[in-house]
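Entry 12.
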Amino acid sequence: MTNDEARETTPDDARLVIEYAFGGVAAQTMRAALRLGVVELIGDKEMAADDVAAEAAAAPQSMARLLRALASMGLLEERAAGTFAVTPAGALLDPARPGSLASIARMFTDPMMLRGWEQLDESVRTGDVAFDKVFGTDFFGHLKQHPDLSAEFNTAMSQGTRQTAAALPGAVDFGRFKTVMDIGGGDGTLLGAVLREHPAVNGVIYDTEEGLAQAPATLSRDGLTDRCSLVVGDFFRSVPEGADLHMMKSIVHDWSDDQVVTILSHCRAALPPGGRVLIVEPVLSEIVDPATAGRIYLSDLNMLVNVGGRERTRAEFEEVCRRAGLAVTSVTPLPQAPPFHAIEAEVSAD
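Predicted 3D structure (tokens):
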């Protein structure tokens, strides 16, 4: 037995296990706060629990217990007995505030996202996507059938892209290209940031009709309507010609290796000589380092359970690109948007 194996557990070890055991409870506490509008009700002021309860049409004692739990999580602060204020972290749950993460929090605490997780062990045993078995359709097909959820998902993806949108335009030399096509680009948050930083570049957002639903408003708000066109389509069938850079953020991890090769092969077929593909995704380390891993390995399991995709190492990105006739030329970390990297690939000489 090694020294590590012989080490006795400590109170810190027990606290770690208990913290994760209560993770689902904490998530549902946050979800209840969102559904009751607690953060919006308190706003920038201090507010007594009884007053919050009255505004939310909730039971006073139960509301006080919820507010104390939120304070224990750092989302509220109890400044005097029974009087609460919103912390900077808690303010991110207000959908009206700049930088809000409310849609992400709502989406990832919604029963739709969680029911597949109840079957994680079965997905690990079989490799099958639990979501498909639970709902009788795939994740994106389910969203198509539920427009409200689809809109929430689009907003969540936009919120999750803001940090990357701030970091990517300065990390990649987009000035080399005439037209950037954001494949699966949603509402245009990422491409809009690139176009604002590089005024000589034009853009195309290529996505499904549902994915593009909020793009016109984004482009209009940013004054980019004349420089960016919208194209409806399915990247499993084809990718349009006309761009010399194909960009994809948080797309590749949604799909299996074979499906990714199909998407990348369509990109390769549509690219002109000298064209490139830019994949913006987390890159897993070859060996897990808990100090830097964050939640990316939980995201990997979410891909397994809900959509059938995966997070990948650099070697795994290189392999799917190679199979599609592309060669990875650079992998650039985005320190301002961890754990994302910019993975650039060119048409292979082979």
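Annotation: The longest strand covers residues 276-284. The chain is about 50% helix and 15% strand.
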